[in-house]
Amino acid sequence: MSNARVIAIANQKGGVGKTTTAVNLGACLATLNQRVLLIDIDPQGNTTSGVGINKADVKYCVYDVIINDVAMADAIMPSGLENLSLLPATIQLAGAEIELVPTISREVRLRRAIQTMRNQYDYIVIDCPPSLGLLTVNALTAADSVMIPIQCEYYALEGLSQLLNTVRLVQKHLNTSLEVEGVVLTMLDARTNLGLQVIEDVKKFFRDKVYKTIIPRNVRLSEAPSHGRPIIHYDPKSRGAESYMELAKEVIGRD
Ligand code: ADP
Ligand code: MG
């Protein structure tokens, strides 16, 4: 029996490539014959729609699992892609951040739910919302490691100390085995020097934690979600598909 490796994709900044990385890393791992569960814990539900699931078809979402104690097995949906399942999010989850506050064991709800399904998968990838609230804390508490996407842009490192501080607090109080899986640089525009400078700065800060694979800016990656398809199915020959495939291999190689 295998025990899934649980990776939370987190950065409280919006628009850095969390969802794109969750969907496409998940789909590429699945293509490499890994059994993958994607967990969408962002009320925007972009990972849910990104794998082609219509929110109107969602019976139970991650909200029901962490707030209403619905069994995770009842909420997981097939994505239509081989080896790839989804625990969906809908806008209902927007209330969870506040509803969790007075709840007993509020930080460990997702972790407990995941325990029941861990032996069914090789990887569980959690897409976090753009905040450091209780939903992200639930993800970090449930995870073996956190993957941090950083956009190759000005102010790339801004706000990271807050994120790392949250990681340290979770390590101290909730999940002593949480590791920083790595930093993935995203949306590199090779035509500018700025991106190269950012890469240098991030490498100085995170050293060997930075993945060799750097995700380029690729228009096919931004089109794929509106077709409800991960890039490896939408345009397998694109640079975006190649780079997420490379990242998936690197992730497998690090285990
Ligand atoms: P987050 O989940 O961190 O808010 P997203 O993954 O949703 O970030 O990305 C923000 C926007 O940038 C989306 O419109 C997405 O399609 C686009 N995007 C993400 N990565 C790339 C990329 N490598 N190339 C081009 N567009 C990208
Ligand atoms: Mg997102």
Automatic annotation (TrEMBL):
<dbReference type="InterPro" id="IPR025669">
    <property type="entry name" value="AAA_dom"/>
</dbReference>
<comment type="similarity">
    <text>Belongs to the ParA family.</text>
</comment>
<feature type="domain" description="AAA">
    <location>
        <begin position="5"/>
        <end position="180"/>
    </location>
</feature>
<dbReference type="InterPro" id="IPR050678">
    <property type="entry name" value="DNA_Partitioning_ATPase"/>
</dbReference>
<comment type="subunit">
    <text>Dimerizes in the presence of ATP but not ADP; ATP-binding is required for double-stranded (ds)DNA-binding. Interacts with DnaA.</text>
</comment>
<dbReference type="InterPro" id="IPR027417">
    <property type="entry name" value="P-loop_NTPase"/>
</dbReference>
<dbReference type="Pfam" id="PF13614">
    <property type="entry name" value="AAA_31"/>
</dbReference>
<protein>
    <recommendedName>
        <fullName>Sporulation initiation inhibitor protein Soj</fullName>
    </recommendedName>
</protein>
